[in-house]
Amino acid sequence: MALLPQRPRQVSAGVVTVFLCLLSVALMTVWLREGATGPLHAVRSASMLLTAPLQQAGAVAFSPLRAADAAVEDLTTSPDTVASLRAQNEDLAGLVMRLEEYRLENERLSKLLRIADAYALPGLGARIISRTSDSYNRTITIDRGTVDGLSVGMPVMSANGLVGQIEAVGLFSSVVRLVTDPRSGVAVFLQANRSEGILVGSPDGLLYLERVPQSSGVVAGDVVITSGAGGVYPKGIILGEVISVTENPADVYLDIVVKPVRQVDAYEEVLVIVGRASEVVWNPQDQGAAGVGGGSGAGAQAQEQAAGHETGQEPGQEPGQEPLEGQAG
């Protein structure tokens, strides 16, 4: 009787699975305990070094296929999905624009706070809600009124200097007459030599410095600041810079043209000074641009004229008396 060949014994799949599981657990245990310099870590580093060129080659070879797959996916995207993505993109673009506007507004308000701290001024921030376009009536309207404690005569500042003075107050808004208005007048002196005068507005938007003697030595580039005469505007606030000086032999005064520090059209927020001018204390450490010092004292007549321009009264006019015919209101 012939013997049949014996078939090799086959290992069952269950045994192989158990063995592989035990081997995996053992390798994981060794991997966690051996540290970064162990043999298993060394084998892994070597294998990564050997397979890196193959991985790069595979990525280059399959990149056209991935691009084609993405293009096909884009072509098969539903119109609703495309519309939704476009709407999201528009929303994000609008959000970016709003955030940028908030950032710019924060910068402007920070400048107002810095100038208030520099002059130690008790101030109240306000937004400009309207502007007049008439060259002979230069005013702005702000969104603060009597409910906020504002009253007629309060000075108004910007981050760069003096803007004007409140001339009318409503419940929730106020009208500010600008220093560039032809009917405006501010008692000032020159920062360099402390010569005093009166700064008046004009229809062309420039400022004209009056009643400055020809012997005062004014030159282009001199900074003009408030003198505080009349008690309306605090002392030392910048108003502008001299751009031209003309001597008229027939006159004892110079013809001086002053350029405002900045046109009010560029402002969106202002600062209303709610304290009395006598309470203002200058702090040169906070802002050195408008240096204020003990200038030459004004004569009684010059101070009376400056006070008359700022308060709307002429020299010698009693408080509350109507201005004479032909006088500026």
Question: Can you tell me about this structure?
Answer:
By secondary structure, the chain is of the alpha+beta class. Among the domains are: 38-76; 117-280 and 299-311, Rod shape-determining protein MreC, domain 1 (Thrombin, subunit H). The protein has four helices and twelve strands; from the N terminus they run αααββββββββββββα. The chain has helices spanning 13-34, 39-75, 79-119, 300-311, and strands at 123-131, 139-142, 155-157, 162-169, 174-178, 185-190, 196-200, 207-210, 223-226, 238-247, 254-260, 269-273. The strands form two sheets. A six-stranded antiparallel beta barrel has the order 1-2-5-4-3-12. A six-stranded antiparallel β-barrel has the order 6-7-8-11-10-9. The longest helix has 41 residues, at 79-119. It is elongated. The termini are far apart.
Structure at a glance:
It is built from 4 helices and 12 strands; from the N terminus they run H-H-H-E-E-E-E-E-E-E-E-E-E-E-E-H. It is α+β, with helices and mostly antiparallel strands and 329 residues long.
**Count of individual beta strands:** 12
- Going by helix content, strand content and strand pairing, the class is alpha+beta
Number of DSSP helices?
A: 4
CATH topology type of one domain: Thrombin, subunit H
The CATH homology group name of one domain: Rod shape-determining protein MreC, domain 1
- CATH class descriptor of one domain: Mainly Beta
Largest sheet: 6 strands, antiparallel, barrel
Assign a percent range to the helix content. 25-40%
Tell me what the CATH architecture of one domain is.
Answer: Beta Barrel
Q: Strand-residue fraction?
A: 15-25%
| Cα end-to-end separation | 142 Å
Output the strand order for the largest sheet: 1-2-5-4-3-12
